[in-house]
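Shipment paperwork, digital attachment
Item: protein structure file
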Amino acid sequence: MKEELLKDIPRDINLVEVSAINSNLYSSDSYLENRVRPTSLEIKVEKNLGFSPEEELAKCLLNFEISGLDKSNEPLGINFQIGIEFFFKVNELTKYAIKEGTKTQISAELGSSILAIAYSTSRGIVLERTNNTFFNGIILPVINVAEFLREDPKENSVIENG
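Attachment content:
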């Protein structure tokens, strides 16, 4: 990709909508009887990106499933799940499109930028949604977005946070 296009990416992306489409905090009866602060977390993240070059729209859906673990890395019985949907307007989206046969893909640079915006925004949403809960505020770890983008979308990413 030409260097000038890379410089355009930040100017071309506009976040137009963010929605928490589902959210659930669960605590088991056994946890409620013996409340212990989690010593680590198991964080599973599922991503789904979609693009409509003609409409200059991009969508990113991130689903998080977070489990509190004890010092032996065993589940404590507290879980938090949230799905967050992001819509972006991307000026001249077609200039980032790469045709491969009958499929059209978006450049990795644009995909990484969109995923970085969505994930970093999600960090604040998850922290806010888990404040004043048994989790006492979950701070999602910083990740390598380029690696996360390359991962098979059928596989959930697991991030150990201890």
